[in-house]
Specification:
With about 375 residues, the protein is an alpha/beta fold. The strands form three sheets. A seven-stranded mixed sheet has the order 2-1-3-4-5-11-10, sandwiched between helices. The protein has a three-stranded parallel sheet with strand order 7-6-8, with helices on both faces. A two-stranded antiparallel ribbon has the order 9-12. α3 runs parallel beside α4, α6 packs parallel to α8 and α13 packs across α14. The radius of gyration is 21 Å and the shape is globular. It starts with 6 loop residues before the first helix and ends with a strand.
Length: about 375
């Protein structure tokens, strides 16, 4: 049985219970009405997001509908908008979960609100400016990018690295949160006595494509290790570059503190050739055991780490469950953002305590933008 939202939401509903359809409750149970629409990237751009959406669809086959945005999303914004509009054109859709909220998400959400102004919009892992995406969304969920500016160098140092290579490209560095994280990493590395090397990688959305960018990583990591030594740690800001980065780190004996979206599921199984059986899907402990064993076989114990919590998947699961409770409570307009209820859903989805905070960027606090920070597990 799903837990109710917090007492605040319950109190709001006790005053006036209104069904999602907009009509007064006739005494029938308002539960099981309304749908959640989830839009994610494709498997090639973010398998975790895609699989989490499929998991929710399997759990709620009559109440969850899904779609994807194109891989080349920055050049195909109209396609993203069209796909979102198609989802919310279903009059039963009351909740839109958009993850990752890539370039074009804001325009798509604005179009969605033209169709349904009362839509509950939850945006996850935004690639758009926080001040913009938080303005069109009721709730934003993101990794604590700023906090990782401290934690990534600290983890690299703890693993034994003396150099940290940071792979990124202009499109990502234009993101306020990624840029601020990098600035913090610079000062943190200096404090820890680690050499920070900022390396340019091809943008997977450029002419070389994802395959070309991945090939660059496979060729460049050995060069960096030859130049700086095996006690070099590597980090990339792009999801699509994680698998070749893990493979190259293992081949060169270097270090890998975490993926850009830290989780045991992100890139590790693919890079290590691990097949997750259907009956073990979602079993984090099983995934960690398999990764640990594979890394040990390759003599790389202690060289790779991540957060033990699949945060990207947790965001989609928590957002969907939160949306379900909100709809079942009657879609109260004044209770779209209940931080206590959201935290409960995130902790449940993550399988443990997650440190949450409101995003603070350039001295501006975004009250509806919640950032999550995890701890590390070293394989």
């Amino acid at each position: 049985m799903k837990k109710l939202l917090s007492l605040v939401l319950a109190a709001a509903m006790s005053v006036s219970m209104v069904a999602c359809g907009g009509g007064a409750d006739d005494g029938n149970n308002a539960s099981n009405t309304g749908k959640v629409a989830i839009i994610t990237g494709t498997v090639s751009q973010g398998e975790e997001d895609f699989q989490a959406a499929e998991q929710m669809k399997a759990k709620y086959p009559d109440r969850v509908i899904t779609a994807t945005y194109p891989d080349n999303f920055d050049k195909e914004i109209e396609t993203t908008i069209t796909n979102v509009v198609s989802l919310v054109s279903d009059p039963d859709v009351k909740v839109l979960v958009f993850q990752q909220a890539v370039v074009g998400a804001t325009a798509a959400i604005e179009k969605a609100r033209e169709i349904n102004p009362d839509l509950l919009v939850i945006s996850g892992v935004s690639g758009e400016d926080p001040g913009v995406i938080s303005g069109v969304s009721d709730i934003c969920l993101g990794l604590d990018e700023v906090g990782m500016g401290h934690s990534i160098p600290q983890q690299a140092k703890a693993m034994g690295a003396k150099t940290l290579v940071h792979y990124s490209f202009a499109r990502h560095l234009a993101s306020a949160t990624i840029n601020q994280r990098l600035e913090i990493m610079k000062s943190e590395c200096e404090k820890l006595g680690i050499k920070l090397v900022m390396a340019d990688a091809p943008d997977p959305l450029s002419d070389v494509g994802l395959a070309g960018a991945q090939q660059f990583i496979l060729e460049d990591v050995p060069k960096k290790v030859a130049e700086y030594g095996k006690d070099t740690a590597f980090f990339s800001t792009n999801c699509g570059l994680q698998e070749p980065l893990i493979k190259s780190v293992i081949e060169t004996g270097a270090y890998y503190p975490q993926p850009c979206c830290p989780s045991p599921y992100h890139a590790f199984p693919g890079a290590l050739g691990i097949e997750i059986p259907e009956d073990k899907a979602g079993d984090v402990n099983y995934c960690v055991e398999q990764i640990t064993a594979k890394i040990a076989e390759k003599g790389m114990t202690g060289h790779l780490s991540t957060w033990p919590v699949p945060m990207n998947m947790s965001f989609i699961i928590a957002a969907t469950e939160y949306g379900m409770d909100w709809m079942d409570a009657g879609c109260p307009k004044d209770a779209k953002f209940d931080q206590a209820a959201l935290e409960e859903k995130l902790n449940a989805a993550a399988g443990g305590k997650v440190t949450l905070s409101k995003l603070v960027l350039d001295d501006v606090t975004y009250d509806n933008y919640i950032s999550a920070l995890g701890s590390y597990i070293t394989f």
